[in-house]
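Request from the bench team (R.T.):
"We need a structural guess for the complex before ordering more adenosine-5'-triphosphate. Sequence and SMILES attached. Just send the tokens back."

Command: build protein-adenosine-5'-triphosphate structure.
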Amino acid sequence: MIEKREVLNVKGLSAGYGPMRVIHDLDFIIYSGERVGLVGLNGHGKSTLFYAIAGLTGWQRGSIRLNGAEVGRTRSQGPGRYTHLVVRQGLALIPQGDEIFHGLSVEDHLDSGAFTPRAWKERGERKKRILEIFPPLKKLMRVPVGRLSGGERRMVSIGRGLMAEASLFLVDEPSLGLAPKIGKGVMDALMSVDLGASAMVIAEQNVALLEGRVDRIIGMHVGKLKGEASATFGFQTKREL
Ligand SMILES: Nc1ncnc2c1ncn2[C@@H]1O[C@H](COP(=O)(O)OP(=O)(O)OP(=O)(O)O)[C@@H](O)[C@H]1O
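Reply to R.T.: structure attached below.
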């Protein structure tokens, strides 16, 4: 039995770009072993919340504790200045859009996700696990990703993120731009990931892809969290089934 502990504890987090404040005074906790949905319409701040946790917004203030260590900043730090420290503390951000290198092979991408010494040492084992999650990649390991379909590229970009030795995976709109059937397949794969003591937050506009499948759903509306949305919006989550 894995002990439930706080992976992420966010208090009073606001963040934005230049004069614009996008997220407002957010408080929430993510526990180990949890798969949480973050649901909100386009432009309401889901990606900005993920970027703030990674230290990638223009500015931010408030507390972000990742595995007990403070990684939030209280001043205008400039995007990316401390991101390596947050990553070292256990964050893997799988951004919206694929952010892949067309000339590199599938295997090169997966290897590049295993960037800590431990993950690198275990990369063979880790790749095997990714291929269990995304079987279509098995035959494509040596193929440059520029030749893959949109769905396959998404598998590569998510697979690369999952190769990391992380305790918190933030996955931004994994189904975006994919045909509905392919998007559902990618979501099925994310649901099949064995989280162990880590946690995963999946941002998604389409609540139907998450309902009944994640442990909790948090709603986001104009930069504010709508509490535990399973109660607020009447979403059905796995716990209630
Ligand atoms: N780099 C940036 N510079 C300036 N404004 C930004 C930047 N990124 C996002 N914004 C603005 O912040 C607001 C929230 O965008 P964000 O991408 O966080 O929303 P979202 O809920 O993730 O929606 P989406 O589905 O489009 O990703 C929008 O008004 C957007 O224009």
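Two things stood out. The longest strand covers residues 6-17. Residues 6-230 form a domain with the Rossmann fold fold (CATH 3.40.50.300).
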